[in-house]
Amino acid sequence: MRSNLFSPMSYSLLLFDYDGTLCNSEAAILHSLHQVFTHYQVPVPPQAELERVVGLGLPSPDALQALHPQLAGAELAAWLLTYRSIYTNEGEELVKPFAGAREVLAAARARNIAVAVVSNKGAVTLETSLTRLGLRADVQLLVGDGSYPDQQLPLKPSPVLYEQVVRPYFAPVLPAATLMIGDTAADLLFARNCGIDACWARYGFGDADACRALEPKHQIDSLRDVLGLMVREKAK
Hints:
CATH topology of the largest domain: Rossmann fold
Number of strands: 9
Order of helices and strands: EEEHHHHEHEHEHEHEHE
């Protein structure tokens, strides 16, 4: 584990990204992207380009547009529906938790540290995946794309999810006692926009130069390194 100005912090709330942070979903995403292009008989982008876009941490509609800029309107909606169907039926089973995921979440609970998952992934997929992997029970709040369809809240890196959902849910936890853990620049910029500390998961999918430029307070090389940031005592 590496950190800028590292010392154990008394965080009361940990916000985890999902893709590339808690779970290794790269194979699932790449498979689903490959298959959706094949389904519509459009040439599949080079592997390096697929991996680059995955590393941006974009919501699925934005990722599809980044790979196929001509997509818009009804056509984009159709591609998105097909992509999500492929991911659910073929990709999801390829997702694995990173080593230490269950250990870290259980340790947070034991130390009376609250946990939320804040992701740009579809909320239904998040719920299904975390439940299947045995991680859902230790997550107090799960926020993803579509969690609040009547409000159409913007996703990371906008701070709106934190300001309107996360912070009120975990009141009175202050920003200074909150840590965002993520692997992409979108996660780290989200933390900056929210006024909370950031921890860069270097083992994930994000672009190293873009993430380093945002100067996260902490950097970790494995999910288990989060254990070193947990010092809050058990509730008595």
